[in-house]
Amino acid sequence: MTLTMIVRFFIVIFIIFCGAAAGYSLSAQEIASDSTRSFDMSLDLSITRSINALDTPPIVQTSHILSNSLLPVVVSVPALMIAGGYIGKDPYLTETGILTLTSEAATYLVTFGVKALIQRERPYKARPDVITGRDVESAYSFPSGHASGSAAFATMLSLRYPHWYVIAPSVLYSLGVSLSRMNLGVHYLTDVLVGTVVGAGISALVYGLRSKIQPAYQGILPTVTMTSPISPMIIPNAVPRTGIFFTPERVGFCFVLQ
Q: Which terminal CB of the chain, N or C, has fewer other CB atoms within 10 Å?
């Protein structure tokens, strides 16, 4: 699956979620009686309000869980990949962890730099009349760090392991995190959309430049040692890595010793 297809998947799923949220909210909330609340809003604020208005306990609780899970996930999963690669003598897995952490670091650097420049106030602070705040945040709103971080995470995993059973849960998790931030009233729709573009774009850039930055970590990648000879094999679409050939056609790696 190409990067273009991954981006399209992001967009389609996000539109479906937003449309469903807006439809539910408009049918369940009595907003027609207040014209200033129902008609004098930008599309950005209107959709944000629709998702924020989903206030049933299961939805709000799920939003808190998804929102609070991001930092542990984007730190622990790459760390486990690096450790697992060393334990299993799997350089491809270790490299994936390193690239994921690199993309996350670059993404947050850009995200918080833009936050400091734009200084957009959180929606629950700027529009308490229409947005319910269910979390407290001190940083600025635009762009969403949760959206950019989760998108960077999902994009790198999808590019390194381009299979539906990796891409689908990764993308759905990223979208769930983004929507949770709107439901909690701490981000506008445009915050999460731009955050998603920033995270996915930086992760794709890091992936594209991996051959350029590989010398910086090549020496710490685990090496494969074998006690018995292996017959040479030819692996389609293999990429050489220090005499070892890896392919993302399967989760894990295949190799040839020459």
A: C
